Amino acid sequence: MEFQPLGTTSPLQFFSNHVYVSSLLLSFTILLLLIAIVRVSHRKNIICSCETCQAYLTSSWSQCFHNLCDWYTHLLQTSPTKTIHIHVLRNTITANAENVEYILKTRFHNFPKGKPFSAILGDFLGKGIFNVDGDAWRFQKKMATLELNNHAITFFGFEIVKSEIHNRLVPLLHASTRNGVVLDLQDVFRRFSFDSICRFSFGLDPKCLERSLPMSEFAVCFDLASKLSAERAMAFSPSVWKAKRFFNVGSEKRLREAVEVINALAREVIKQKREMGFSENKDLLSRFMSTVHDDDTYLRDIVVSFLLAGRDTVASALTSFFYLLGKHPEVESEIRVEADRVIGPHKDLTSFQELKQLHYLEAAMHESMRLFPPIQFDSKFCLEEDVLPDGTKVESGTRVTYHPYAMGRLEEIWGCDCLEFRPQRWLKDGVFHPKCPFKYPIFQAGLRVCVGKKMALMELKTVSLSLLRKFHIQLVEPSCGNPRFSPGLTATFSFGLPVKVCEIGLEQQH
Fold first, then answer.
1. Full strand arrangement of the beta sheet holding 91-94
2. Are 153 and 284 in contact (CB under 8 A)?
3. Cα(44)–Cα(64) distance, integer angstroms
4. pTM, rounded to two decimals
5. 319-357 pLDDT, tens per residue?
6. Which CATH class for the 49-503 domain?
7. Beta strands in 208-279 (DSSP E)
8. H or E stretch covering 409
9. What span, in angstroms and rounded, lies between the C-alpha atoms of 499 and 323?
10. Which residues bind heme (predicted)?
11. Which end of the chain, N or C, is surrounded by fewer C-beta atoms within 10 Å?
12. Which residues are known binding-site members?
């Protein structure tokens, strides 16, 4: 065989060699995937003939249910213990409140997030608070709790939300009333919450809610990274996405490119803050930088985690809330009546104290998240073999999932009217009363309870109240049953939330 000197390969030969190498890599990737499938198929319980596993593997459940969460809810409702097993996934799923307390509090140390979960979200979230256990989690929780409970930063967040509402959200909806256009309210809320959380976390304004509705490269990449990270969890085996990641092909190549954009922006923002000085700035990154020194990767991971939590969950909760209000105008009217009584007709919200007095609004928001939690389920991994309070045995390495979406639909917890949207169930003599967090784990519970709960509720109530006192928001296509959801880390309506917006006249406000 003759070899040409280096640098003398003809274009045709170069092209042929390139195609040959690419084909070889593709063949090797396919071989690795086949090996992964064979390895997975030999695991215990991976070939299971039970009715539940067969329905999952063949997707026959979709003949009766639009959403996987609704099928799981049906199985959990009919289970005597409110616990089911998806053997092919090595996943124990529960809606039993005693089990939830056991997992999140009593035996917290035996049910961490676990390495499988950390691997799935590792490229996107790194070592941020939602993706770590042990000392790293404890340090970040302590730091976040100190900051988010600080009155100054809470006020800073409140001012950002009010500014975004006044300068962008309300003008956008006013314009839509004049033009008679159909708005995708879910998209509007995602833009609003992204602008707000970027300003709060980074001191950066992506301006996604400007009148022309631009979408910044950062927002696009953030969405893509979130979506593709969630798809990893749905792969037949972790070996599938890991092989694609190793060869940098397909969805893993797109994920890597998206994360690179996020990382580049984060590095630039951190660099600029160091150059300009951050001690006087109020955003979350600046406050963290005064505690974490010379570890830009760690800072990036912390802030990206807060971006994910503060953007997607808020947008999801607002979308569901206005979906339910569109089907229950009597609740919308009651919120306005309460606001006029507490704040005064035609007056804007000015303080946290006023928010605290809006008990019916608080009840309606909690009731909405009961039926449509922003995070429909959450998983842990069992370290050592254990037994749940309902008698369920859990082997080491098993994924254990608690399911807030299903829990909100259990008669045993909420009564025979559990499928109805009734804010009154949260009120006693007109005063809001919270429920047991292990029966309502929307913000998690126990040691990993959401440190941003107070901030999130402030934003949800402020936005809702501001819009409801100025606009009637009418669903374009009121659907029967539950909406369809897209796969993702948070609950997202597959077809958005198309609405028409009408401005409330002064005579109607009286």
1. 83-86, 91-94, 399-402, 378-381
2. yes
3. 29
4. 0.88
5. 999 999 999 999 999 999 999 999 999 888 888 788 999
6. mainly alpha
7. none
8. none
9. 9
10. 450
11. N
12. 450
